[in-house]
Design goal:
The structure is a homodimer. By secondary structure, chain A is an alpha/beta fold. Chain A folds into two domains: 162 residues, Alpha/beta knot (3-Layer(aba) Sandwich); 65 residues, Helicase, Ruva Protein, domain 3. Helices cover 50% and strands 11% of the residues of chain A. Chain A has a six-stranded parallel beta sheet with strand order 3-2-1-5-4-6. In chain A, α1 packs parallel to α2, α1 runs parallel beside α7 and α8 runs parallel beside α10. Chain A is globular, with a radius of gyration of 19 Å. At the A-B interface, α1, α7, α9 and α10 of A face α1, α7, α9 and α10 of B.
């Protein structure tokens, strides 16, 4: 079942009640893997009270000190954001993304990342994600409650499961592999002067958004690292 | 706007927090008419705290002593239920019902009725409704939190509204633009020795497959051409 490969990852959550309400939503929509990354609060009685039948999800939730450790083993990572504009212009809706998430989850671990209640995910966290998801809202909406966001996403995944016919599943590169590639590429692009101090952050984010859409497989990462290595070698040999 | 004709009617609600959370969900999804029918609690500070930007919805919420008085003026009433079986076998999903609700709301007042937290709507209340709606869940799910149910329904109505008008479509780069980029890239990769006569065809095909998956937009092509240009420039300056 692809659902068992999908983890809801809550980053830096502040309110125990939201963790409980998220677990309740997950339970009702058929998801069970919850990861708390660098939480700002502990699961407590209120969490269990609000989780209702989702209590066992809280029992088995994994708590990790950092986002990095939470992402270990995750092959496909989707970040949620409420903001729009800039590189966030390329967000996808939960409805359009659900089938793709389920396809990926048939063959590997998938994470769906939710940021803290007040700020949401910041640029650095979003950069690690292969795709960005945004729940449609009215114009000028305020932020959506964390557990309600989790609910919408889990609901779309459940509907996707009900509608789903299995498709072919490419094995994606892990987040670690992809991050190592980006680091190598950034270095190479700095060496040849494509990147410089003013444009590096923005340009790398654009490159991340572009390649994230592709759903990079291991062999893709191999090709990209090969290009970066060659640029680096070339830049080095030029220096001599 | 049909949305302004749609009222969320909460019957016999027990927890002020749920009223607030429902208002927050309504606000973000573009609904504003809230009716409290025979509530078992009052709107209080907690309601406003949880409502966030939905505070004005609480301000203007109408409170009615009975369901009958709450339904005055409503032409089309949809009841929500979590239970299945019996006459409830004829429930429809929020997704399939949303277009119909919006159609009705274009010409008259529509109500969507939610029961108390513990029991949901009982037979008598459901009897008054023209149609019954049930949010899909996993098998053997527990009841869905009231405000989360309101969220799902409002979300489907918002999506239904958005689908009535065409949304923004990302403009992909033209084939010519993409081909010109590939040609430029191939040249640059040859110059730095990443490509050579034996691997060029195969490797370019792999790169095409990888970037093809991304669905390249014009700005993506711009970034890629920028990288290729810089590699070329770098290679040329080395030759000198």
């Amino acid at each position: 079942m692809p659902e068992s490969n999908i983890a809801i990852i809550l980053l830096g959550t502040k309110y125990p009640g939201n963790i409980g309400s998220a677990a309740r939503a997950m339970f009702n929509m058929g998801l069970s893997r919850l990861i708390l990354a660098a939480p700002k609060c502990s699961v407590n009685e209120e969490s269990y009270r609000l989780a209702r039948s989702g209590g066992p999800i809280l029992d088995s939730a994994r708590t990790c000190r950092s986002l990095e450790s939470a992402l270990r083993g995750i092959g496909f990572l989707v970040g949620t954001t409420g903001k729009t504009g800039g590189y966030r212009a390329r967000t996808l809706s939960p409805r359009s993304l659900a089938p793709r998430i389920l396809d990926h989850a048939a063959g590997q671990k998938v994470g769906i990342l939710f940021g803290p209640e007040d700020t949401g995910l910041v640029d650095h966290d979003l950069g690690v994600c292969q795709l960005l998801m945004r729940i449609p809202t009215r114009p000028n909406a305020a932020s959506i409650n964390l557990a309600q966001s989790v609910m919408i996403v889990c609901y779309e995944l459940l509907l996707g499961t009900l509608e789903r016919e299995p498709g072919p599943v490419p094995a994606l590169a892990s987040v670690e592999q992809v991050e190592a590639m980006y680091a190598q590429f950034e270095k190479a692009l700095l060496e040849i002067g494509f990147l410089h101090s003013e444009n590096t952050k923005h340009m790398m984010m654009r490159i991340r958004r572009m390649l994230g859409k592709a759903g990079l497989e291991r062999s893709d990462v191999g090709v990209l690292r090969g290009i970066a290595r060659q640029i680096h070698w070339f830049a080095g040999s030029r220096g001599k």
